[in-house]
Write a structure and sequence with these properties.
Elements: E1 2-4, H1 11-28, E2 32-34, H2 39-45, E3 54-58, E4 68-72, E5 82-88, H3 98-106, E6 115-121, E7 124-130, H4 131-140, E8 143-144, E9 147-148, E10 152-154, E11 164-171, H5 176-184, H6 188-196, E12 200-202, E13 205-206, E14 219-222, E15 226-236, E16 242-249
Parallel strand pairs: 1-2
Antiparallel strand pairs: 2-4, 3-4, 5-7, 5-10, 6-7, 8-9, 11-16, 12-13, 12-14, 14-15, 15-16
Amino acid sequence: MRNAHFSKSDDAALQARLEDWMDQCRTRRKPVRSCFLSPAQQAFLTPFLPWDLAYRWDGGCLGAERKKLILAPEEADLSSDIVCLTARISDKFVQLKHPDVLGALMNLDLDRSQFGDLWVEPGRIVIYTSDDLADYVCMNLTRIHRLSIQLQRSSMRYEPAVEKQTLTVIVTALRLDCVIGGLCRMSRAKAQELIRAQKVSVNHKILDECDFLCHNEDTISVRGYGRFVLKGQRGQTRSDRIVAEFEKYV
């Protein structure tokens, strides 16, 4: 089964790659797997997915952000090639973080699109990648900074531990600039500067529309401030301002 990779990230190139994957699947009548796609890339491609082919998204575990698109002539052929690699670590002397693991992988001359979600949790490193790359990674990634590691395939599918805290924010409206101002405790003018500087995304897509109206379950990311999910309106103040509830990733 073929793995499809691409390097350009602009929308036109990404759509062209999707057309190529679909053509391969239709012509060869065999499944085609993409590389790992970011949430923004997934959101962009979703409206263009084919009606005449079976498909599904898979990141290896529930809650995965980075996923592969699997295309096949029949639903029965939508098998995944994603494997989970883990290594036990002692964090008594060396405190590893996500950038440390990602940097070590990049030093193997590998591309970010060849890996799905990866993280460091107490006592363990978890990496999702493709079956045909797993052995290479296990053999070559044996040290991160001063810490020796031994990666191996895992039959378990670990899930990232996501911590969230609930925030209550009072805003004049659910316009994006008002919401950013309330979440980040800044003036509306400053919020508009961030939006126009393309530092704000909604549902993993960068927006420059200050008057965009946010809705329940929208994921709002502000560079340098964090990621938030709008859970809903919880009432109004006496001055008719909206009391909105958010969850913040911590």
